[in-house]
Amino acid sequence: MRLVFKILIAMFCINMTCGATTLEQRVDRLYNSMSLAERVAQLRSVYMSELFMPDGKIDEAKCKKLIPYGIGHVSQFAMDLGKSPNEQRDMVAQLQKWLIENTPNHIPALVHEEVLSGVNALDATVYPQQIGMACTFNTELAEKKTRLSAAALRAMGGTLALSPMVDVVRDPSFNRLEESYGEDGYLSAAMGVAFVKGLQMGGNLHEGVAACTKHFLGYGGGANASEKELMEDILLPHEAIIRLAGSQVVMTGYHAFNGTKCVANKWLQQDLLRKYVGFNGLTVSDYGSIPQIDESLSPLELCAVAMNAGNEVDFPTGEVYVNIPEALEKGLISEDVVEKAVKHVLMLKAKLGLLDNTARLYSDGHIEFDTDEERATSYHLAAQSIVLLKNGNIGSDNKPILPLTAEKLSRLGGRVFLTGPNANSMWALAGDYTFQAMHYFWKGKEESPLRPKYVFLKEGMEQKMPQGGSLLYSRGCDWTDVPETIMEKGGDPRVAEQKIIDNRMVDSHEPADWDEALRMARQCDVIVAAMGENVMLSGENRDRTKLTLPGRQEEYVNALVATGKPVVLVVFGGRAQVISDLAKKCAAVLQAWYPGEEGGNAVADILFGNVSPSGKLCVSYPAVELHEPVCYNYGLEKDSRIAWPFGYGLSYTSFEYSDMQIDRQVATTAEAFGLSVNVKNTGNVYADEVVQIYVSPIDSESRLKPIQLQGFARVSLKAGEKQTVRFRLFPEQLGYYDGGQWNIAPGRYMVKVAASSQDIRQEQEIVLTGKHHVKKLREHYLSEVVK
Question: Are strands 526-532 and 415-419 parallel, antiparallel or unpaired?
């Protein structure tokens, strides 16, 4: 999208550009011209709704009262306003114009929003939630998605995205698991790097928007990890994204790390983030996390603790950082601390082009959201995110139940019964941090599923039903009859204001007639049961006490199975759910996650065989209730607690791996080594395969984890086609952290080509030769696919 911007900031010539030749000089000059009140304002934020009248016109009296010295940031403007893209852009334009014309140094604000599964805005494209994105193992399409999101956000005037979340989550029950890329540090790093490269337009911040990686560090279980696991796995996505993609902003988490809240943790923010990783960008608090440091501290003390620890911006309003002048006066913080923080804000604005004479602040003309290209991208990601967990054989020919092709439906009888709470609902598709989910959870307001258009599973199946097939539908059961979530203590403080949250459930707007549904099921030939979670059962501050299907859903599926008709179970939600007993009884099982606006089309295409499933699990799928850390790389042996392993996913075809080639001896100091393998589609349908590379130690003295993902490639193959897939790997990928440095030790290692972490197809030994080699930091984090 070409952005054409209106505002010419002529007054910047006086303060910004005369004689300045570098961004640093421009920032220094601007900083020196600012009063203390202006500097403090750059470390604070405001909600745009506080500054506007109901008719969408800026309230100049409020602006003069609330932001007379300017403002550094605008918080969640699209979710806050809930307007059309053009209306939101017009309001941003009014605010930026007011700041430029009415504040001492004419500095525009950084306007931020969430872009986790697309821009958190009315009408914006809704992509699959991140846990589903990770199952695509498709970094190229992930990068394209965030390029589209960046263009959409920039058009409205947004310049900072509070995304991605790259927490390595090892707790299957974590309420925000859906926002993550799952349990593996390498996969999280690869997907996160792609996310940030797309969002920041490959480093062209004048066109892209700044990324904010979160939550630093160890949210979702990693804070209690050993030093080795912390540095090798939990830190890896943040480190790789900062060093490979140049992420501009880092947000700390709500949680405590080694007994100290992250936002007040100096070791995390200064020793680890800045000194070790080398981050030189901006650090920001999560919303309302500073007051949660210690309830016994005064706002003045909280201000000093957070700033001295290294936190630079107070989100969402800066209510604590209003105390900066007093903290300076009393010597609780130094001028140097304030200077560094303010200059990091100004530098980010400079990199984004906001301090240029012709600043790019918003687009001109009509803004079109949810374009054909965006919808197509959302569809392809959804189709690639869905994981086929089981595909059992039925009938006299003993063939798999899926896909339900015209021929197969004809043999079965042709009548398909669709049922379940997620069969005809937006809440099967929209994960947390989409506009609809945010408005429903935070504001209790249900938005239309037409802005953008959500394709429910029922609609998708109706439109794509093969010739000769017919669809019957009855909801059958609801998600749950009683509230099943508890309000998590801590986290976003706005939750504490929602006293009714524990009594709120999603309204399905249609009856759930159990008896009617079972009568219809008996009349049909195959049953598709769409079960799982919804926005009130999965997400931030929504803790469920168990991982089985909510409410009476399991009982309902068992009743469907008892009809004697084959049941295809489709599970939606933000995390893997305990369905092992049901899976044994069902003919097939699909894990669909929250697949976004095109989810109904994507699931239908897989059910009917228009697309072969290709998603691979980004988590170890539990067979039993698990409320403790679990990860495939803890050991080589199959864990009886796990139903389906990391990297697992079935297809409608089969793949043969052969002729693995690898450099057999490589020096510890070598630049790289090569690997290739042949992959052949041995079935009769076009399909994608995700080729996975794992490494394991052979020598007992090696400090390498028992098994670790170190590469992957998505390959598209016609029936009978064979391709050679080539990788470039690096000795550092066989290294380990110890003694404050990265170690590459000589010895023997096994490199494995696999279809999952438990399905090794080819393996060969490699020997690292030479001396023990050490580095403070890795230079290479991710293997490369050689085209």
Answer: parallel
Q: Do 526 and 469 belong together in one domain?
A: yes
Mean confidence (pLDDT) of the chain: 94
Element (H, E) at 434: none
CATH of residue 408 = 3.40.50.1700
| Domain span holding position 468 | 386-618
Instruction: Indicate the length of the chain as a whole number.
Output: 787
199 domain-assigned: no
CA dist 412 → 93, 344, 395 (Å): 60, 65, 8
Are residues 605 and 535 part of one domain?
yes
Q: What whole-number distance in Å separates Cα of residue 617 and Cα of residue 387?
A: 7
Of 600, 618, 636, the last residue of a domain is: 618
Each residue's pLDDT tens digit, 648-696: 999 999 999 999 999 999 999 999 999 999 999 999 999 999 999 999 9
Strands 415-419 and 470-474: parallel
Helices (H), 82-160: 85-102, 130-136, 139-156
Residue 249 located in a structural domain? no
Cα(476)–Cα(739) distance, integer angstroms: 59
Domain co-membership, 418 together with 453: yes
What is the phi/psi pair of residue 390, to 5°? -150, 145
Of 567, 600, 618, which residue is a domain's last? 618
Based on the fold, state whether residues 596 and 721 are members of the same structural domain. no
| Helix, coil or strand: residue 747 | strand
Same domain, 694 and 585: no
The CATH number assigned to the domain holding 668 equals 2.60.40.10
From residue 200, alpha-carbon distances to 14, 107, 205, 247, 281 in Å are 29, 22, 6, 8, 14
Tell me how far apart the 2 most distant CA atoms of the chain are, in Å. Answer: 85
CA distance 454 to 262: 38
User: For 761, how many CA atoms within 13 A lie in the half-sphere containing its CB?
Assistant: 19
The pLDDT, as a whole number, for residue 13 is 39
Q: Which two tokens mark 566?
A: 């084959």
Phi first, then psi, for residue 721 (nearest 5°) are: -80, 145
568-626: pLDDT as tens digits: 999 999 999 999 999 999 999 999 999 999 999 999 999 999 999 999 999 999 999 99
Nearest Cα residue to 431 out of 742, 116, 135: 116
Distance CA 162, CA 214 (A): 8
Q: Is residue 409 part of a domain?
A: yes
Three-point CA angle 237, 239, 241, nearest 5°? 65
In this predicted structure, the answer to whether residue 11 has a pLDDT above a threshold of 80 is no
Pairing status of strand 526-532 against strand 567-572: parallel
State how far Cα 523 lies from the chain centre. Answer: 42
Overall average pLDDT of the 146-167 stretch: 98
Helix/strand/coil for 51: helix
- Does 416 share its domain with 556? yes
Residues 601 and 733 in one domain: no
pLDDT in tens, 350-384: 999 999 988 889 999 999 999 999 999 999 999 99
Residue 413 lies inside a defined structural domain of this protein: yes
d(CA 565, CA 138): 36
Count of Cβ atoms closer than 10 Å to residue 706 Cβ: 13
Q: How many domains does the chain have?
A: 3
Q: Identify which of 384, 434, 431, 407 has the alpha carbon closest to the alpha carbon of residue 603.
A: 384
Q: Distance (Å, rounded) from C-alpha 554 to C-alpha 316? A: 41
- Considering only CA atoms, which of 531, 211, 617, 597 is closest in space to residue 381? 597
Nearest to 285 by CA among 248, 240, 242, 318: 318
DSSP 8-state code for residue 44: -
Which pTM does this prediction carry? 0.95
762 shares its domain with 689: yes
Sheet holding 773-775, edge to edge: 736-738, 741-744, 773-775
Q: Are the C-beta atoms of 422 and 530 separated by less than 8 Å?
A: yes
Is 264 buried (19+), middle (13-18) or exposed (0-12) by CB count in 10 A? buried
